[in-house]
Amino acid sequence: MTTTKPNQTLFENISRQAKLGQLLTEPTVLSGGLLHQMNRLQTTTGTYAVKLLNPSILSRPTARQNFIDSERIVNALAGKVSALPALTIDGSALQQIGTHYYLVFPWVDGSTLPIHQVTSSHAELIGEQLAQIHAVDPLPIKQTAGSPESPVPWDTFAEKIRQQGLTVLEPYWTDLKRIKRWDSEVSSALKQLQGTSILSHRDLDAKNVLWKSGAPILIDWESAGPIHPMHDFLETILYWSLDEQNRVRRDHFKAFFKGYHAAGGRLDYPIEPTLSAGYASKLGWLAYSLSKALHLEPVTEKEQQVAVQQVHETLKALKDYEALCPVVKKWWRDSQQNTIRTF
Fold it and tell me: What's the CA gap between 305 and 319, in Å, rounded?
């Protein structure tokens, strides 16, 4: 979603509809994610973060219900972990004004951490939070797991690249066999992991955690849903262990493991299918980026350029992950054979 200057009239109407009071200053666009636009509003009743949701995402058949369900999940967890749900207004967190959908959050004077500032202590605290999420089972929300079969048209993407003459996306052609192999591994792994799932955040990386006075606040829950606990654990421990060169920091890995274990997290699941399942989110982002890069959904020129860059970065992330898998498998087996002190 392109970041633009806020529409003053739109935010005046939002503030009125959501009963936030009158605007005291111009809304401020905050730096943030590639999907939605976060804005800071100062009004006569306080300060708020308003997330304008990407209209192309909301046009999907299940998108609105997914946002409603994710807010139900975070509200159910909010009393048990340090989670920040959207405000409920007139019985709903998801709000609509004209063609716009939005969420309103209370403002938190906290900050996210760049990778180089994440310490092993931060990793340990997030390990504890994840174990506490996994312990809240079952939540009073119906779990509907997705199909393990991939619906992604990888060959169609390749043909579209050829038809459009997008030489900038030729690396996709080069990596197509590897992509399809990773995709096949994901489908096989998810079949093996079926039958055991919990409801979790599912995207608990550094950009989705605010830190205030040394304590974490878990934000941006729109990806929340069912996931195998070991799949969730492995993805999250890597989020908090990798350095800027995608190398695993052993002390961070150990600290996260320790925090999760100390908080009662269960760690007796098989590692092989979990490692294969780790390709899933990256392949999903690759498919989304390709759709935008190839103009298969409405995009601006700037959004298309960003999507092309995301294709390149995601292909690199997939290769980096493949190289990491043997290292993680060895460390995992060592951890299962030794106590946490000698891991």
Answer: 22
Please give the average per-residue pLDDT across 59-69, as a whole number: 87
246's torsion region: left (phi>0), alpha (psi -120 to 50) or beta?
left
Structure tokens at 97: 């004004």
CA distance 290 to 304: 9
pLDDT in tens, 172-216: 999 999 999 999 999 999 999 988 888 999 999 999 999 999 999
Side-chain half-sphere CA neighbours of 32 within 13 A: 24
- State the Cα–Cα distance between residues 64 and 92, nearest whole angstrom: 12
Backbone angles phi, psi at 50, to 5 degrees: -115, 120
What average pLDDT does the chain have?
89
Radius of gyration, alpha carbons of the chain:
21
Question: How is the chain split among helix, strand and coil, in percent rounded to 5?
Answer: 50, 15, 35
Token pair recorded at residue 38: 């976060």
Instruction: Indicate the DSSP class of residue 86.
Output: P
| Residue ranges of E strands in the chain | 28-29, 37-43, 46-52, 95-97, 100-106, 198-200, 209-212, 215-218, 225-227
Peptide bond into 226 cis (omega under 30): no
DSSP strands (E only) in 134-286: 198-200, 209-212, 215-218, 225-227
Chain-centroid distance of CA 65 in Å reads: 17
Q: Report the 10 Å Cβ neighbour count for 105.
A: 17
Residue with tokens 């989705």: 208
- The answer to whether the pTM exceeds 0.85 is yes
The encoded tokens of residue 81 equal 């972990």
Distance CA 188, CA 191 (A): 5
Per DSSP bridges, beta strands 225-227 and 198-200 are: antiparallel
Neighbours of 102 (CB within 10 A): 22
Q: How many CA atoms lie within 13 A of 341 on its CB side?
A: 0
